[in-house]
Design brief:
The chain is mostly helical and 90 residues long. The protein is built from three helices and no strands. The mean pLDDT is 81.
Length: 90
């Protein structure tokens, strides 16, 4: 509990939005799962572990970048603009 506030600052900025660092960590962890899936599927299709790992290693870099950009676009699109009033839900 002592470390929860300092660590929280890494994941949420002063306005309460997800930080870039949090989006990056989510990107990396999701790609680890996705890459393992790609390697398994590639192995079933090719029957060659070397080929499967090659395919997985190429797609991991591109998809981390794509997911990060996707995550930041969603963060920007789903937060109200500064000149727009926030809707209050009762």
């Amino acid at each position: 509990m002592i470390l929860d506030q300092p660590i929280k600052k890494w994941f949420v900025d002063h306005t309460g939005k997800d930080s870039n660092f949090k989006s990056f960590l989510k990107s990396v962890s999701w790609r680890m799962v996705g890459t393992m899936d790609t390697i398994v599927i590639s192995y079933f299709i090719t029957g060659q572990i070397k080929m499967a790992v090659s395919i997985g290693s190429i797609e991991v870099i591109s998809k981390i970048l794509l997911y990060y950009l996707h995550e930041r676009a969603w963060e920007k699109a789903t937060n109200p603009k500064k000149h727009e009033p926030e809707e209050k839900f009762a």
